[in-house]
Write a structure and sequence with these properties.
single chain; Rossmann fold; 5-stranded mixed beta sheet; globular
Length: 371
């Protein structure tokens, strides 16, 4: 009965959409699709909660004026950021949740009842992606323009393209251009001074401590691209065929990297639970981050890595891997890889600038740490 009712709602809304033509602009999204977007977007849904900071760059204090729906995944994968936004925007709790974040929980019927005219999706991630052809077709038939953006697969190439696209779609071109200028300036601070010669070998430990096995890494896209931009030789790149995978302990011990860099999936919430992973990000203090790093690296085989024993071990907030502020991670990596060349580079200052100028929430917490 519920399925029949859902189909009936979709059929009615599809029919109504066909009767309501609107003036549109034609944009090319990050999936290479031509999309007709209303000249004036009034109602927006997000395909995953991690796009909330992206929307906030453009909308600022008016973040909730056009947002009518989003999945519930932000509180699950990034509780610190979710808390930041909830404190700054108490009414965010009233925005309807249209799924848990996974594509199969995204409710078409619920979305259509919200009458959005624009859906913003990621090429890949936790929510609906560019492979969801039927969903995209149904949304567009119902008059909902679907735009794909990307901060994950090719983060440095596609961040400015995604921001420019959304700036055009939302009538925030000047705001998008200002952000892209700041992003380019922060990236140039590394590119223009990057030392030439042999690059340090790095083991990039993705989601360190999450799970019993060892050791997950990223080979392409995501943090791997950010590390390459900073001049690091990612040992996973030639050993993993896809974007991510697992490296063996034997490899790490027999061919030890010069630096160990972990991505931290712990948050302030996990500290009280003595969780086996590193805590970084909103609400996490430097002392707590350091303690969690020492806790992880003081047990198991990782403590035997030369990079760990000799103090060349670091951790960075996992959220940077799929964030418009990814360039801050490039600066952090550059300082770890080439401390003498980048002695005066200040990633903390860059992150503070991005939050002060482009986020309607207050920056707090520790976002990277060294052993």
């Amino acid at each position: 009965m519920a399925n029949l009712m859902g189909r009936a709602i979709v059929a009615v809304l599809l029919g109504l959409a066909l009767l309501a033509p609107v003036q549109a602009q034609v944009l090319i999204d990050l999936a290479g699709r031509e999309v007709q977007v209303p000249e004036r977007v009034e109602r927006i849904v997000l395909g995953e909660g991690r796009l909330l900071p992206v929307l906030a760059i453009l909308e600022g204090e008016q973040l909730l004026e056009r947002l009518v729906g989003m999945p519930a995944d932000l509180a699950l994968v990034d509780p610190g950021s979710a808390r930041q936004y909830q404190q700054a925007f108490p009414e965010l709790a009233k925005v309807p949740r249209i799924g848990q974040g996974a594509a199969d929980t995204f409710s078409l019927e619920q979305v259509l009842t919200l009458r959005p005219d624009l859906a913003i999706f990621s090429l890949s991630g936790h929510g609906p992606d560019s492979t969801q052809g039927r969903l995209i077709e149904q949304l567009q038939r119902a008059g909902v323009a679907v735009l794909f953006v990307d901060f994950r697969e090719q983060p440095l190439l596609n961040t400015p393209r995604s921001m420019a696209l959304l700036g055009q779609a939302l009538g925030r071109k000047a705001r998008a251009a200002a952000f892209n200028a700041a992003h380019a300036e922060a990236l140039a601070a590394v590119r223009e001074r990057l030392p030439q010669g042999a690059a340090p070998k790095v083991f990039l430990h993705s989601r360190a401590g999450l799970g019993e096995g060892c050791c997950e890494s990223m080979a392409r896209g995501m943090f791997a691209d950010l590390l390459a931009e900073a001049g690091g030789d990612n040992i996973a790149r030639e050993r993993l065929p896809g974007h991510a995978g697992t490296l063996s302990l034997e490899l790490l011990l027999s061919q030890p990297p010069e630096l160990y860099i972990a991505s931290a999936v712990g948050s302030a919430d996990s500290l009280a639970e003595d969780a086996p992973y590193i805590a970084l990000g909103p609400g996490v203090t430097a002392d707590a981050a350091q303690a969690s790093l020492r806790h992880l690296l003081g047990r198991g085989v990782l403590q035997h890595l030369g990079a760990v024993r000799e103090g060349r071990a670091h951790a960075i907030w996992h959220g940077f891997y799929n964030s418009p502020f990814n360039v801050v991670a490039v600066q952090v990596f550059a300082k770890w890889l080439y401390p003498e060349a980048f002695v005066d580079l200040d990633p903390q200052r860059a992150l503070e600038h991005f939050y002060r100028e482009f986020q309607p929430v207050t920056l707090d917490g520790q976002y990277w740490i060294s052993l």
